Amino acid sequence: MSTREPIYAALATLVFGNPAVASLFVTTGRLLPHVEDVAPEQCPALFMFQHPETRTYKGKGIPPARTLHCAFVAYFYTLPANGALPATLINAAADAIDDVVSNPGNPGNVQTLGGLVEHVYIEPAIAPYEGLLQEKSVLVTSVAMLIP
Amino acid sequence: MHTFGAGVMIGTPLTTSGGTAISNPSPVQFGILQEVTLEDSWEVKELYGSNQFPVDIGRGKGKVTMKAKAANINAELFNTFVFGQTVATGYEAIYQDLTGTAIPGTAGGGWTITPTPPNSGVWIADLGVQGANQIPFTRVAGAVTPTGGQYSLTGGTGVYQFSVQDHTNAVVAFINYVYQNPTNPTAARNVAVVNQPMGYAPTFQVDFMAQMHGNTYYISYPNCVSTKLSRTFKNDDFTVPEFDIQAFANAAGTIFTIYLSE
Known about the structure:
The complex is a heterodimer.
Chain A: H1 4-16, H2 19-22, E1 27-29, E2 45-56, E3 65-77, H3 86-102, E4 119-129, E5 136-147
Parallel strand pairs in A: 1-2
Antiparallel strand pairs in A: 2-3, 3-5, 4-5
Chain B: E1 4-15, E2 28-29, E3 33-47, E4 56-70, H1 75-83, E5 87-89, E6 91-95, E7 101-102, E8 112-113, E9 122-130, E10 138-139, E11 150-153, E12 160-161, H2 164-168, E13 172-181, E14 189-191, E15 203-212, E16 215-230, E17 242-247, E18 257-260
Parallel strand pairs in B: 10-11
Antiparallel strand pairs in B: 1-2, 1-15, 3-4, 4-17, 5-14, 6-13, 7-13, 8-12, 9-13, 11-12, 15-16, 16-17, 16-18
């Protein structure tokens, strides 16, 4: 049976270690702080946060198909006065995270974290929360990992 | 009485696919049983008069069939019920490369890649090379120096030779192949299904029981053959093989015997 920690660790390494992602974020980690606890100089910041896993049963006696869920939560700091558009940073980050998860660059076109899982994919959404009336913006990218 | 669930279903081999009786049969259970359908049907001939409905019905040919969906997969199960041939030890499998290997330069082995099969296995056959873009490489003869998008194999050794151009372009090769291992996994079995004369099929006995609250529905078919084995493999889902079975009379003329609590 697949164990959880190596899977989550591999996903974190895949995303945080990707050069395109790394070039966009000052801070990364698996411990998600509250947005107010992240200093402006720590932004852009990207954190991985685990969600409840789900199970589906095909039938009696058949092992469940388990899906691990997590989210990559990104914090951005922009000052309206300097003209920076939060969406610009958000979109660049969304593209980078989407690309590393969805385009594994192998003939099967499937991200398996080196065979640890059956399939990694973004679901259900990439959700931007653009801070137009405040200095912080947030991007939440939900990721699902199917393990047999 | 009532029954609930798919029950338990066990088969006992009687003869091989060549008709040879099995002297010490090993019964095999349909593991992780999901669904069983037992059906008894007959052709009928109706005698009509001038009215709408028949005034008599004569029963013609009968057919007793079973359909079982069982998720547990093993060679003994398939062989007992469908193939009836020889089960041997030894393991072979496909290695599907989803990781890829950058084609090395002179320092890394002179544009050659030698895959390492899992679990100390041995490479035995090529199943092609692809790039990350899913475009297949073209295999050329061993005496030919590959160019971009080509590869060759050195005899049957599993040493893949690529081109200088693909190394220069930092191409990543994804190599699929067949490998074998005679001892790992230890439970591995294989069946070489050999063409058999028409008319022959392995025969077996089927015992099925469903129950609830101590009440049982047990039915025994002393003589059966398989008529179909279906296996559907789907993305992101388990495979549940389906066995179609038909019963026929044994030497005593018995098709089945049913035992009910009530």
